[in-house]
Design a protein that fits this description.
The chain is of the alpha/beta class. It is about 45% helix and about 15% strand. The chain is built from 10 helices and 7 strands. It has helices at about 20-25, 35, 45-50, 55-65, 75-80, 90-100, 110-125, 140-145, 150-160, 175-185; strands spanning about 5, 35-40, 40, 105-110, 135-140, 170, 185-190. Strand 4 (about 105-110), helix 7 and strand 5 form a beta-alpha-beta unit. Helix 9 packs across helix 10 (about 175-185). The longest helix is centred in the middle third of the chain and has 14 residues, at about 110-125. It is globular and about 55 Å long. The model has no long low-confidence stretch (mean pLDDT about 95).
């Protein structure tokens, strides 16, 4: 019996294209970027950014040192945000309905740069100024201080919300993230494109 659902954000409610960020950085001369960050891997710099251990400015400065290229903050920001596309309105409408049936939560690996960008996309394109209000609580790795796929991140949320993992479903589009969730006792579902939340029958 599923009573609670913990959702991922990117690839579930927001469309992403990691290739756009990769190409944007390569166009800027950062040819090593694919080995630094992608959907399935983050090096130490990006892990620090996504767990709130460094500020945006510290990230920009470290990125310049690591890449060896004197990019401006704005060039880095634009390329880093290029992967974020849109929030199909029908998924937000579905989310509005599903919260009448389940206790729903969000858990996203993100950072303050991306958070500001997708908040702006939602406000501009979906006229949504409080995405977090769809959920009992929205957890973001850069404020939680923990990120997927580490089991401790799921355990922290389960403990804080006093959720029974056996009654809680975790939905993510990245298979790697399901491993830690399973280790924490959660039921899991891998959402694979072109499938969307609209196809789940929940």
């Amino acid at each position: 019996m599923i009573k609670n659902i913990l959702f991922d954000l990117g690839g579930v409610f927001m469309n992403l294209d990691f290739g756009l960020t990769e190409r944007a950085f390569i166009d800027l001369g950062v040819t090593a970027f694919p080995g630094m960050f992608n959907q399935h891997h983050s090096n130490d710099l990006f892990e620090k950014l996504e767990t709130g251990k460094i500020s945006d400015q510290e990230f920009y400065e470290a990125f310049r040192r690591e890449s060896g290229i004197a990019l401006t903050d704005e060039q880095i920001r634009r390329a880093w945000n290029a992967l974020m596309l849109d929030f199909p309105q029908e998924r937000l409408d579905w989310l509005d309905r599903i919260r009448d049936k389940y206790r729903i939560y969000l858990f996203s690996n993100t950072n303050s740069i991306h958070y500001d960008a997708f908040t702006e996309i939602l406000a501009r394109e979906n006229h949504c100024t409080d995405f977090d209000s769809y959920f009992i609580k929205a957890y973001y790795s850069h404020t939680l201080g923990l990120r997927k796929p580490y089991v401790e991140s799921y355990q922290q949320i389960l403990s804080e919300q006093q959720l029974d993992p056996a009654e809680t479903l975790f939905i993510d589009d990245t298979a790697k993230n399901l491993v830690g969730a399973s280790q924490a006792g959660l039921q899991t579902l891998h959402l694979v494109a072109p499938q969307t939340v609209l196809d789940l029958g929940l």
